[in-house]
């Protein structure tokens, strides 16, 4: 069966490749791709570290430097390749179960970003078993647990964060768990107060707090407040995941035109193209077919490569761009077995409604019931499902 | 949102004290490379495809460091990079792999990214059977890189995925997955008939009038089972022949007709066949009508078949198997229905009630299907 999927995916890629024949550009100046400026001091430092590591791949400190730089950039740009590069830098230690603590923390973060949540949790459990005061590991685990829907465990981690992580990070951690368990209004109010009086957090942490506040406002249906928080979170350009969250909010509030302004030409990331394809389709933008063909090609390649990093995006693509509710429902349900954030829940409910298959939403409804999640975007979907006989 | 929160949470703390940041980079998709090769009788040919972005990571293409990798920068190092890339590929026995000779590179787009295409040829004979393929590109700098390999001999081929853990695969392009294709597509064909009421209903409608014959202005029972069977055989054969023709033509993309149109006509065919039972116009040559509408049903089957995605190297097997599955289901319906209808054909209830009422219901269903398919409204399932 896997073979069939690969064959079909490769066939699709070949077919799409056939549309445009390979060519040799006539102009030497044709830009094929934009990459980090090699002259920028940071890029020089990164390249130097990378070259030094290539010469001496077993130098742990060099490997950690390269991996950290790659992860940091992966975060800002939503570029999954960066995590692969970080993993490659750590290759000599990657498969050693009892790797050095510094490696295990980064390995957990890389695994988390490659959606290997169980692998990430295993590393973090081991680190915290030996060093319960490791704030970085505990904070990361708190968010891994939020992602997989283990909210009581996540709350426990947030409460036990050591002072070293900072007041703001600890507060964001706990308030987000509260928001996911039915107390979004109180959490947002508290977070707003904290941001107001906060003076010493780093800009990155402040922007993060603003983005989490925006997310809470979205859950509450407070469009104006969400707009304001997103504007602050993206004030200095913003990183790609925050811009994408902003774009989702704009799509939810029927402002597809603003999505194009916000994202067009900003990045080539899959998560960006998905929003462009959805907004473009709603606006009948002439670029929309190009965006969706490109996404279809990438999903086909991911499928052929056995990568499950894009399930959420692919489900949404099938639902909102291709209008293929049944396929979307299958993907959304598989994604739900991996991630259990409000947007994952919503995707299953949307697909179940569209596919006229209310029974498929049972797990998600039970989860919402159990956790007490309140999100204005889920309410109408739950009502629709309740109307339909099972 | 989870990705945002997760990424930020880890990064905010973990990396705020990092020595350097990489700066603003255009983000992308995961990294994939492609190796496609075809083994001929006396030589092999193929190409490696790698993202220009990945080539820059591995071979530092951006010579002037301005952040733009240009065609000129790649072209000037063309032969050097082509031989480095081909060094990462091996086809043939480990002891004596094919000597791969690079040809002029080109640029093409894959998933919105510019890829460099490295064509190659190799003057070596590979005996039929298993072929060893090695792919070792990019893994050193990107542990999530995946190499998608497609190896063919003649018109058949196999695909596999290379990872840092699996850099060598032994592939037999001719190894028989033909049987797998056969099995799976036959069951798809069977499933399509049982899941799609329309084809079944069309057939049943034709059968309703196969056990009776129009004489004067009323239906008379057919005397012998042989007579009924013969009438049925003609109808079913005509239907089968017609839909096989269009199914094949459409599967090989000789004809292409919008599916909404095809599906609407199929719905109409159900209604028309049922109307013909109520107000017989075509009585003698029902098989002609079966043939005409069969052409459309074939296009419908083709739609289902293409949706399944036929393996390119096994299109013919897939087509034949799918069609066989369709015929098998069809015969099962005939075998089940015909004797039953034959037994009750003489009863007044059959000619006066069952035939007209059943046909009337089918007319309504057919028209509702038509409305639904032509307009995209959701009225009834099917």
Structure description:
- The complex is a heterodimer of chains A (390) and B (382).
- Among the domains of chain A are: 98 residues, Serine Threonine Protein Phosphatase 5, Tetratricopeptide repeat (Alpha Horseshoe); 70 residues.
- Helix content of chain A is 72%, strand content 1%.
- Chain A is built from 22 helices and one strand.
- Chain A starts with a helix and ends with a helix.
- The N terminus of chain A is likely disordered.
- Chain B has 382 residues and is an alpha+beta fold.
- Chain B has two domains: 143 residues, no CATH class; 198 residues.
- Chain B is 51% helix and 19% strand.
- In chain B, strand 12 and strand 13 form a beta hairpin.
- The interface between A and B is large, with 121 and 87 residues.
- Strand 1 of chain A pairs antiparallel with strand 3 of chain B, so a sheet runs across the interface.
- Summarize the amount of helix of chain A as a percent range: over 70%
Radius of gyration of chain A: 22 Å
Characterize the main sheet of chain B.
Answer: 7 strands, mixed
* Number of DSSP helical runs of chain B: 11
String of helices and strands of chain A: HEHHHHHHHHHHHHHHHHHHHHH
Which protein chains make the most extensive interface, counting residues with beta carbons within 8 Å of the other chain's beta carbons? Answer: A-B, 121 and 87 residues
Q: Taking all residues together, what is the mean pLDDT of chain A?
A: 88
Number of E-type strands of chain A: 1
- Overall CATH architecture of the domain at 48-145 in chain A: Alpha Horseshoe
- Beta-strand percent range of chain A: under 5%
Uncertain parts of chain B = 1-27
Strand fraction band of chain B?
15-25%
């Amino acid at each position: 069966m896997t073979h069939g999927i690969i064959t079909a995916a490769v066939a699709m890629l070949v077919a799409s490749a056939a549309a445009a024949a390979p060519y040799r550009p006539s102009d030497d100046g044709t830009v094929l791709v934009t990459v980090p400026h090699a002259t920028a001091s940071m890029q020089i430092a990164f390249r130097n570290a990378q070259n030094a590591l290539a010469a001496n791949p077993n130098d742990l400190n060099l490997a950690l430097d390269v991996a950290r730089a790659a992860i940091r950039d992966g975060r800002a740009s939503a570029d999954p390749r960066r995590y692969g590069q970080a993993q490659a830098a750590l290759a000599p230690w990657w498969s050693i179960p009892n790797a050095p603590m510094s490696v295990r923390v980064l390995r957990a973060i890389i695994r988390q970003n490659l959606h290997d949540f169980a692998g990430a949790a295993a590393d973090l459990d081991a680190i915290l078993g030996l060093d319960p005061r490791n704030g970085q590991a505990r904070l990361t685990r708190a968010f891994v647990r939020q992602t997989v829907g283990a909210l009581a465990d996540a709350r426990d981690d947030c409460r036990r964060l050591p002072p070293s992580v900072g007041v703001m990070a600890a507060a964001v951690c706990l308030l987000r768990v509260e928001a996911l368990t039915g107390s979004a209004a109180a959490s947002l109010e508290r977070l707003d107060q904290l941001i107001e009086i906060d003076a010493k957090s780093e800009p990155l942490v402040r922007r993060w707090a603003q983005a989490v506040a925006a997310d809470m406002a979205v859950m509450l249906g407070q469009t104006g407040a969400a707009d304001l928080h997103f504007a602050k979170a993206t004030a200095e350009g913003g990183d790609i995941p925050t811009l994408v969250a902003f774009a989702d909010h704009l799509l939810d509030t029927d402002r597809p035109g603003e999505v194009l302004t916000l994202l067009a030409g900003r990045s080539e990331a899959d998560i960006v193209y998905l929003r462009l394809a959805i907004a473009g389709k709603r606006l009948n933008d002439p670029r929309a077919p190009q965006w969706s063909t490109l996404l279809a090609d990438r999903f086909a390649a991911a499928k052929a490569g056995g990568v499950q990093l894009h399930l959420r995006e692919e489900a949404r693509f099938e639902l909102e761009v291709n209008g293929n509710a049944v396929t979307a429902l299958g993907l959304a349900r598989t994604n739900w077995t991996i991630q259990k954030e409000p947007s994952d829940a919503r995707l299953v409910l949307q697909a179940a409604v569209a596919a006229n298959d209310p029974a498929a939403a049972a797990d998600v409804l039970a989860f919402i019931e159990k956790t007490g999640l309140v999100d204005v975007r889920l309410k109408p979907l739950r009502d629709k499902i309740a109307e339909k006989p099972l | 949102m989870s990705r945002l929160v997760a990424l930020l949470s880890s990064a905010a703390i973990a990396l705020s004290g990092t020595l350097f940041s990489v700066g603003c980079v255009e983000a992308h998709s995961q990294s994939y490379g492609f190796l496609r090769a075809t083994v001929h009788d006396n030589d092999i040919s193929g190409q490696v495809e790698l993202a220009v972005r990945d080539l820059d990571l591995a071979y530092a293409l951006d010579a002037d460091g301005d952040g733009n990798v240009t065609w000129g920068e790649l072209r000037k190092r063309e032969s050097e990079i082509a031989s480095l890339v081909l060094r990462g590929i091996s086809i043939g026995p480990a002891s004596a792999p094919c000597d791969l000779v690079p040809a002029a590179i080109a640029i093409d787009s894959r998933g919105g990214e510019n890829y460099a295409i490295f064509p190659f040829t190799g003057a070596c004979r590979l005996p039929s059977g298993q072929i060893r393929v090695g792919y070792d590109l990019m893994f050193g700098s990107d542990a999530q890189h995946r190499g998608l390999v497609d190896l063919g001999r003649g018109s058949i081929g196999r695909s596999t995925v290379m990872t840092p853990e699996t850099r060598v695969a032994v592939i037999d392009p001719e190894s028989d997955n033909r049987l797998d294709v056969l099995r799976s597509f036959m069951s798809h064909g069977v499933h399509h008939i049982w899941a799609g009421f329309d084809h079944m209903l069309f057939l049943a409608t034709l059968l309703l009038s196969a056990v009776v014959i129009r004489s004067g202005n009323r239906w008379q029972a057919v005397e012998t089972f042989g007579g009924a069977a013969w009438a049925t055989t003609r109808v079913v054969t005509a239907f089968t022949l017609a839909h096989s023709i269009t199914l094949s033509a459409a599967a090989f993309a000789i004809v292409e007709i919008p599916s909404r149109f095809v599906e609407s006509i199929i719905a109409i065919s159900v209604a028309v066949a049922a109307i013909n039972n109520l107000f017989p116009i075509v009585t003698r040559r029902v098989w002609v009508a079966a043939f005409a509408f069969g052409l459309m049903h074939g296009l419908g089957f083709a739609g289902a078949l293409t949706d399944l995605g036929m393996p390119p190297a096994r299109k013919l097997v897939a087509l034949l198997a799918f069609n066989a599955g369709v015929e098998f289901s069809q015969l099962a319906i005939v075998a089940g229905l015909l004797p039953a209808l034959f037994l009750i054909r003489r009863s007044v209830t059959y000619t006066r009630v069952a035939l007209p009422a059943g046909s009337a219901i089918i007319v309504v269903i057919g028209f509702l299907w038509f409305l639904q398919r032509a307009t995209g409204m959701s009225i009834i399932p099917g």
